Amino acid sequence: MSLSFLTDVTFYSILQLIGGFILAVGYLPQIVKIMKTGSVRDFSRLYLGGIFSGIVLMEIYALFMFFHEHTAGAFLTTNTISFILSGTEFFLVLYYWNKQSKKLK
């Protein structure tokens, strides 16, 4: 069902890159908003910590697959972007949450 000039692996790697990139850059608008407003009280730290923890575990898997099995390059690429951006969002929320907590005292 893939295009004739692409192997199945290449076709699905391209799909993974596109989908992974879309998911990864989804963090950017929220990161920009946090940095502009400094407002994070509506965020669930537990939720964001869970998402970030899951991505950390997926990053370990992606690194294993890439360096040990010599596969999953597309997954490693997009997951690393997600790791960096979700981590940035999570740590910004923690930073501004603590900063706001100190102002309330």
Mean pLDDT: 91
CA-atom Rg in angstroms = 17 Å
Shape: elongated
The fraction of residues assigned to DSSP E strands is under 5%
Total number of helices: 4
Give your account of this protein's structure:
This protein has 105 residues and is mainly alpha-helical. Helix content is 82%, strand content 0%. It starts with 7 loop residues before the first helix and ends with a helix. α1 packs parallel to α4, α2 packs parallel to α4 and α3 runs antiparallel to α4. The chain has 4 helices and no strands.
Produce the secondary structure layout.
Blueprint: H1 8-25, H2 27-37, H3 45-69, H4 73-104
Which features characterize this protein?
105 residues; mainly alpha; 4 helices; 0% strand
What can be said about this structure in brief?
By secondary structure, the chain is mainly alpha-helical. Helix content is 82%, strand content 0%. The protein starts with 7 loop residues before the first helix and ends with a helix.
